[in-house]
Design goal:
Blueprint (H helix, E strand, L loop, with lengths): L5 E6 L4 H8 L6 E6 L4 H8 L4 E4 L6 H5 L6 E4 L9 H6 L3 E3 L6 H17 L1 H9 L7 H4 L9 E5 L3 H12 L3 E5 L9 E2 L2 H7 L2 E4 L13 H5 L5 E5 L8 H10 L2 E6 L12 H4 L3 E3 L8 H20 L9
Parallel strand pairs: 1-2, 1-3, 3-4, 4-5, 6-7, 6-9, 7-8, 9-10, 10-11, 11-12
Helix pairs in contact: 1-13, 5-8
Length: about 325
């Protein structure tokens, strides 16, 4: 029987290396149509005949899915599905799948990089040097530290946090974690209150749910140790941003390494991005060639399974 090729639509401004990875996908299984994210008319035209929608970050709304009468699968490139209207997908018979594990290495490594950037003031020191200076401003070295001998607290202990734990322990850190759903763990599991009281570095690794929204609110931030570093590579709304701005300004929180914000992209000035104590990246923790190669392999396999009527990998809905 002749194989059926699934048409998959991907609205994403890919770099040349990632375009090459996408183009190498076997066309007998999947035809990936990539469009620039701003090309709304092109997207709506391609959705009319799409079997699969490849979701990166922009919300997958009920209206978007209605524009795709043949749609059978929303395939999340990554893990979090909070930006997909799961209720509409379910009632419309559209499957939703994610990709646990494909971005684990990339996210863990950027979280480690943000910790190091915050502790060693890498960004402002580099900016001074490339701007023509050489001597380091003394205030940039005030309190500069190492991960070794510090306590790293991981909120959430899934695949990313476990990989990160291995890395920071190798650098000499003590690791504690809070995750009621983690089951067996290779680090000391503690209450959230104890983690906030003991950790010198707090790193977030939980999904965004009604229970985790504003998990780090004004009260919990106030209960952290003075000089704590906060790292967030999960979801922006996990943190009360106004409270974090205040804590950074007062120096109760020494620094924050943020790959995510509550509003992405910001529609106006975000005070966090103006803080000299913030190192920020635009939700790119997952974005490496390795992640894309692993992701394309999952896309190809799920498209094959979709065409063959077989159970899909990592189905959420």
């Amino acid at each position: 029987m002749k194989a059926v090729t699934m048409k998959a639509v991907l609205p994403y401004d890919a770099s040349p290396s990632i375009r090459a990875i996408i183009a190498a996908a076997p066309t007998a299984t999947v035809d990936i149509v990539r469009l620039d994210e701003a090309d709304r008319d092109g997207l709506l035209g391609e959705l009319a005949t799409a079997d699969v929608f490849l979701h990166v970050l922009a919300p997958v709304t009920a209206d978007l899915m209605r524009r795709a009468p043949k749609l059978r699968l929303v395939q999340k490139i990554g893990i979090g599905v909070d930006t997909i209207d799961l209720a509409f997908a379910k009632q419309s018979g559209i499957a939703v799948c994610n990709m646990p594990g494909t971005n684990t290495a990339a996210v863990a490594e950027l979280a480690l990089g943000l910790m190091l950037a915050c502790l060693r003031r890498i960004v402002p020191i580099s900016n001074d040097l490339t701007g023509g200076g050489w001597s380091v401003r003394p205030e940039l070295l005030d309190g500069a530290g190492e991960i070794g001998q510090r306590c790293v607290g991981l909120i959430g202990y899934g695949a990313v946090a476990r990989r990160l734990a291995t890395a920071v322990r190798a650098l000499g850190a003590r690791v504690i974690a809070h995750d009621p759903m983690a089951g067996e763990a290779d680090v000391e599991m503690v209450s959230l209150d104890r983690l906030l009281a003991e950790a010198d570095i707090v790193s977030l690794h939980v999904p965004l749910t009604p229970q985790t929204r504003a998990l780090l609110d004004r009260d919990r931030i106030a209960r952290m140790k003075p000089g704590t570093v906060i790292v967030n590579t999960a979801r922006g709304p996990l943190i009360d941003e106004a409270a974090l701005v205040e804590a950074l300004a007062s120096r109760h929180i020494a620094a924050a390494g943020l790959d995510v914000l509550a509003e992405e992209p910001p529609r106006g000035p975000n005070p966090l991005l103006a803080s000299p104590h913030v190192v920020a990246t635009p939700h790119i923790a997952w974005m490496t060639d390795g992640t894309w190669r692993r992701s394309i392999a999952v896309i190809v396999e799920n498209c094959r399974r979709l065409a063959a009527g077989e159970p899909l990998l990592h189905r959420v809905v």
